[in-house]
Specification:
A hairpin with a 6-residue loop joins strand 1 and strand 2. The protein is built from five helices and six strands. Strands 1-2-3 form a three-stranded antiparallel sheet. The protein is globular and about 50 Å long. The chain is an alpha+beta fold. The longest helix has 16 residues. The chain is 29% helix and 21% strand.
């Protein structure tokens, strides 16, 4: 992800985009005041900002302030913490990552599409293309997760941008605990 054209956002979490462990994943938690209740509406997104866009979405759920505080800790437990960002940055990340992936042929389907639509409603209307550069080093970079179909993703990327238009790193599914990797074209 490239925030060079968005210096107002780049300084919010210095070095976060450079951390190798995140592997292009960003968790976004959205909390919006409800007009019908004293509880806050809370939704979440797991984004692959390097390639696939939306990996997961949690539909809005009403929460008290104390429950939200506990939920926030659980939601970001895999991260080294969290940074509160302006709503326009959250909106640019979520809708921008989804649009980036859509350009290669990746769309949320079924239940994920429904949850994304419900959760995205908390963000408001999608912004015009923002200053965030998605991908890694100017190209999609696919790193498979446990629920991805690497062969299907690579086929889709080859159709969309050709063999030289993307990078990838795929773990061998038969030996995930050893951390062996098949590396795609080097950048």
């Amino acid at each position: 992800m490239d925030l060079e054209s968005a210096p107002q956002w780049a300084g919010l979490d210095p070095g976060a985009c450079d951390t190798e462990e995140v592997r292009g994943l960003i968790a976004v938690l959205v909390a919006a005041d409800s007009t019908r209740s004293t509880k806050t509406q809370v939704a979440g997104f797991l984004l692959d900002v390097w390639c696939l866009g939306l990996k997961n979405a949690l539909a809005p759920e009403p929460m008290s302030e104390s429950r939200l505080a506990g939920h926030r800790g659980l939601y970001f437990r895999a991260c080294e913490g969290h940074v509160q960002v302006p709503a326009n940055l959250a909106r640019a990340l979520v809708f921008g990552a989804a649009a980036y992936a859509r350009g290669f042929g990746f769309e949320p389907e079924g239940e994920l599409a429904e949850e994304f639509t419900e959760a995205a409603a908390l963000l408001g209307e999608p912004a015009d293309p923002g200053p965030i550069g998605f991908g890694r080093d100017g190209k999609p970079f696919f790193v498979n997760g446990p629920y991805d179909d690497p062969e299907a993703v690579l086929r889709t990327l080859r159709r969309a941008v050709g063999d030289d238009g993307f990078h990838f790193e795929v773990a061998f599914p038969e030996q995930p605990s050893r951390g062996r990797r098949l590396f795609g074209p080097r950048w």
